[in-house]
């Protein structure tokens, strides 16, 4: 039998890899998907986005239970979360979707191959060879195109090692009980989401340490201020400009020493979550055999169609230099890459149109330039802002915190960025992304009829606020 030559081989089955595999199959390509772990789905499905959001939803339900009297529902005093059931539900959701991925691979005629994939060197006669090591059993496969989708791992602070007290996203998802106290290093999406989860579930003392001047530092400055305000209201302690110097184990937990303005301080807790970002998983995949592929601090450089410096080799997902490490970004990068490989028309990735979504309480959704970045880029800006306190649906659901902020170019009304903090922000941001994708103006949004009563009406009023004409304030 002649050896199979695949149209595309994909190393890694996270959201970037599995999405690329499915779209490749839909486009009629012969696809191989290589995965080192026993199940498909990568970090996002097993120890990232999906289990975290399952916990967050349970936490949100429990918050509603605590406020039930306000809604006219009598619930016995002293109700508390059933932690084993919460964890079991989370695990069942993960298992269901992992099984779903196996079905989708079969449906789209994708060949899944277990093992660690490694580049072997330049293509020969336009065909690349990948070495696959599955627990010592090695085989080679051939493909005309390769997609590197090997994902990322949690960064750890120097001298610290993950265990039952010093946690990464993996360990904190598998706790047997709710900690009485928790210190979190880093206030990006991971840090503030877990701060929200465990505060809602009853962790008495939650402290978030951030080395930069404000929490959620990639967001618009007003969003950061609002989240800090709500966290104070929820008794979540946030300390900024805090440089962590040491994590030390104690008899009962951990002690974290940090410095603010040159003064050392220490906070103690049962557990410590290290949430200081993620490192690309590119060691050991053979990049050194192809020096034409530009690698910087482990990240792989690509063009807008995700192609590296070597024809036929693409990189997608968390390993791509200059792109946000977001599951939905990786998924679209995979779609773009395989569509390009299939020779079909496709638009390159536009970084400014990749939305951010943070599922803390209140939620954050954002896309495009912050007000500060827009001014730095030389834009004369006009801003519209509308608070959820003036939105009728927000009153109905009892979530009044936050606002929608639209940043526009003053001359033409072009939408440069939209920043939401408040109820369902991660859903509402989709309208802004679609509007910006189609180059809509704030005036176009003003002319778009929104159903009433809905949270999305806040977008209509924020657009009106750009021109000083919101209806409800």
Give a topology summary.
Elements lengths: L4 E7 L3 H12 L4 E5 L6 H6 L1 H18 L16 H25 L3 E4 L1 E4 L8 E7 L2 E12 L3 E3 L11 E2 L1 H4 L8 E5 L3 H13 L3 E5 L11 H13 L2 E4 L3 E7 L4 E7 L2 E7 L1 E4 L3 E3 L14 E2 L2 E2 L12 E3 L11 H15 L14 E3 L4 E6 L2 H6 L4 E7 L4 H6 L5 E7 L5 E8 L2 H13 L4 H5 L10 H10 L7
Parallel strand pairs: 1-2, 1-6, 2-3, 6-19, 8-15, 9-10, 9-15, 10-11
Antiparallel strand pairs: 4-5, 5-6, 7-16, 12-13, 13-14, 17-18, 20-21, 21-24, 22-23, 23-24
Helix pairs in contact: 1-8, 3-4, 3-6
Can you summarize this structure?
The chain has 473 residues and is of the alpha/beta class. The protein is 31% helix and 26% strand. Helix 1 runs parallel beside helix 8.
Keywords:
alpha/beta; five-stranded parallel beta sheet; single chain; globular; seven-stranded mixed beta sheet; 473 residues; 24 strands
Q: Can you give a write-up of this model?
A:
The chain is an alpha/beta fold and 473 residues long. 31% of the residues lie in helices and 26% in strands. The chain is built from 13 helices and 24 strands. It has helices spanning 15-26, 42-47, 49-66, 83-107, 169-172, 189-201, 221-233, 327-341, 371-376, 392-397, 425-437, 442-446, 457-466, and strands at residues 5-11, 31-35, 111-114, 116-119, 128-134, 137-148, 152-154, 166-167, 181-185, 205-209, 236-239, 243-249, 254-260, 263-269, 271-274, 278-280, 295-296, 299-300, 313-315, 356-358, 363-368, 381-387, 403-409, 415-422. Strands 1, 2, 3, 4, 5, 6 and 19 form a seven-stranded mixed sheet that branches. It has a five-stranded parallel sheet with strand order 8-15-9-10-11. Strands 20-21-24-23-22 form a five-stranded antiparallel sheet, with helices on both faces. A hairpin with a 4-residue loop joins β20 (356-358) and β21 (363-368). α1 (15-26) runs parallel beside α8 (327-341), α3 runs antiparallel to α4 and α3 (49-66) packs parallel to α6. The termini are far apart.
């Amino acid at each position: 039998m002649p050896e199979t030559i695949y149209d595309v081989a994909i190393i890694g089955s996270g959201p970037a890899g599995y999405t690329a595999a499915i779209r490749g199959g839909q486009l009629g390509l012969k696809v191989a998907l290589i995965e080192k772990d026993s199940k498909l789905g990568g970090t996002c499905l097993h120890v990232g986005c999906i289990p975290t959001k399952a916990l967050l939803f349970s936490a949100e339900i429990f918050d509603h239970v605590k406020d039930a009297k306000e809604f006219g529902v009598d619930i016995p005093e002293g109700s508390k979360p059933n932690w084993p059931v919460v964890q079991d539900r989370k695990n069942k959701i993960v298992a269901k979707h992992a099984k779903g991925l196996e079905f989708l691979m079969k449906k789209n005629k994708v060949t899944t191959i277990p093992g660690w994939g490694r580049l072997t060197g330049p293509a020969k006669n336009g065909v690349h060879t990948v070495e696959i090591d599955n627990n010592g059993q090695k085989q080679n496969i051939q493909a005309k195109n390769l997609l590197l989708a090997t994902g990322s791992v949690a960064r750890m602070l120097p001298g610290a090692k993950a265990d039952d007290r010093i946690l990464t996203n993996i360990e904190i998802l598998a706790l047997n009980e709710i900690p009485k106290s928790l210190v979190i290093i880093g206030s990006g999406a991971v840090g503030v989401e877990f701060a929200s989860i465990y505060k809602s579930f009853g962790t008495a003392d939650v402290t978030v340490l951030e080395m930069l001047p404000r929490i959620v530092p990639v967001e618009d400055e007003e969003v950061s201020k609002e989240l800090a305000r709500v966290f104070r209201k929820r008794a979540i302690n946030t300390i900024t400009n805090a440089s962590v110097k040491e994590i030390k184990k104690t008899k009962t937990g951990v002690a974290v020493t940090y410095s603010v303005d040159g003064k050392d301080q220490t906070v103690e807790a049962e557990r410590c979550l290290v949430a200081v970002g993620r490192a690309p998983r590119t060691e050991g995949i053979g990049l050194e055999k192809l020096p034409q592929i530009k690698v910087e601090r482990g990240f792989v450089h690509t063009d807008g169609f995700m192609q590296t410096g070597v024809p036929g080799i693409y990189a997608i997902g968390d390993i791509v230099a200059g792109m946000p490490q977001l599951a939905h970004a990786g998924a679209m990068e995979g779609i773009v890459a395989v569509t390009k490989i299939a020779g079909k028309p496709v638009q390159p990735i536009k970084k400014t149109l990749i939305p951010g979504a943070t599922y803390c309480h209140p939620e954050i959704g954002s896309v495009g330039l912050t007000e500060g970045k827009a001014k730095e880029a030389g834009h004369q800006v006009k801003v519209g802002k509308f608070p959820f306190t003036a939105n009728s649906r927000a009153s109905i659901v009892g979530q009044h915190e936050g606002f929608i902020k639209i940043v526009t170019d003053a001359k033409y009304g072009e939408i440069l960025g939209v920043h939401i903090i408040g109820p369902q922000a991660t859903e509402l941001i989709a309208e802004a992304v679609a509007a910006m994708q189609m180059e809509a103006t704030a005036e176009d949004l003003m002319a778009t009829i929104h159903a009433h009563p809905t949270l999305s009406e806040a977008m209509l009023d924020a657009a009106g606020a750009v021109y000083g004409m919101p209806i409800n304030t």
